[in-house]
Amino acid sequence: MNATFRQLRLFLAFSEHLSVTAAARACHVTQPTASMQLRELADGVGMPLYEQVGKRLYLTPAGEALTRTARAMMDEWAAFEQHMDGIKGMTRGRLRLSVVSTAKYFVPRLLGSFCAALPDIDVALEVLNRDGVVRRLRDNLDDLYIMSMPPEDLELERHAFLSNPLEIIAPAGHALAGRRQLPLAELAPMRFILREKGSGTRLVGDRHFASLGFRPDIRMELGGNEAIKQAVAAGLGLGVVSRHALAAQPGDEGLAVLEVEGFPVQSNWWTLYRKGKKLTPVAAAFLAHLGHVGDKG
After folding, report:
1. CA triple 106-291-207, angle to 5 deg
2. Residue 113: other Cβ atoms inside 10 A
3. How far apart are CA 233 and CA 218, in angstroms?
4. pLDDT digits 0-9 by tens, 135-194
5. What is the pTM of this model?
């Protein structure tokens, strides 16, 4: 069986998008060229690599196996290229990073300082909800992953690099704003606006509430921190968000942080990758950069 790197790169793009048009666009070729390359690759394998069911395309078992093999080959080649650049005294390459949505408030700053030190680095950043990042982690699509609640069913290398305190927020001017050491029980009559089930913030918050024997009266579940802040500022209820999602002066957003007993909840941001994964030199350099940031923090 003969397969070119161009065909394998094209097939990886197809396996990610499950669209010939999107794969062609990602690889900067025409759709007819992409279709021909994928057909030649399937002929070489001797089995269909994908099938159409209804209006959607799906990988066959052979396609899934080829995806894993092609990705491993491309990762090894990228690591080799970066290693050769290192020998030549050059530091360049591509960093593939997936982060949960709350991390968007601080990850760009970390990438900014990293890229300032290594200006020839390219970055591919995916910002998704926790379930989306976990899916990419399972499929080993990126170099590194950042989240606050790592999945427990995967063997992972974990590196804590930044604290992630969760705060209870209220509208600015709320009757409880400014009071100290509020008993959590005093919030029982109030309605809460929380992140969707499955998000890291919700998982940590639910565990903490349960440990304190408190059941919040949930008025609304929303899929993003900005939506929660807007709803809280509008007086629809109290919220629980990461401190990183708040402005330096929460009052500028029409919000107040309540000083509630048992809060803020202390958790961490973690950098993750699959155990046994060989990091590229660029990924290893970014991991070291995060460790340095954590030491300074």
Report:
1. 65
2. 11
3. 16
4. 999 988 899 999 999 999 999 999 999 999 999 999 999 999 989 999 999 999 999 999
5. 0.71
